[in-house]
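Regression test attached.
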Amino acid sequence: AQTVTQSQPEMSVQEAETVTLSCTYDTSENNYYLFWYKQPPSRQMILVIRQEAYKQQNATENRFSVNFQKAAKSFSLKISDSQLGDTAMYFCAFMGRRDDKIIFGKGTRLHILP
Amino acid sequence: DGGITQSPKYLFRKEGQNVTLSCEQNLNHDAMYWYRQDPGQGLRLIYYSQIVNDFQKGDIAEGYSVSREKKESFPLTVTSAQKNPTAFYLCASSIRAGKDEQYFGPGTRLTVT
């Protein structure tokens, strides 16, 4: 069975700094999707970024980028120039091409300090 | 505006009562999902539906029931058989199950006393 592990339960960084959130996963599949979701204090889940495993290029969305290492089964999220509004719970998620559901990690709580 | 709505935002019930949580989407998505979120547990899948009139159990379906009579609607009933119903419940939808990312509603906080 696929699993998703986020090894950092909680992190704090100063505003404007760069922070990297870690995620590893376990699968025997070759084709799959990976996601990062953000859950701010409002608790609304928001899709931050999506990566397709067959694409070698790392996905980016403005200040958010990923470091996708397929062989190592690692999918970290980098937030550049962090802002107070980035304070949230971040969830890493996996979806196999043969699956019809997403598997979520337990999340990393990120605090951006003024 | 397209999106997913869940109502109400907060719901209170007495133990032993069934309660139904609403989830509606106007995104024309085929697939819909229900998750439960507890502190430190992440999201756990309760039920999902790939298409109208069809649904499958997720990882923690016991004590819950669903229906999918319309494409737009996927209500979740928390029955009295659910031993620890107090939680935050999130509904999501995707264009197709297993092919596309999921989009989430704002959630319902259910408290049972």
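Expected vs. actual: identical. Residues 94 and 102 of chain B are 5 Å apart (CA to CA).
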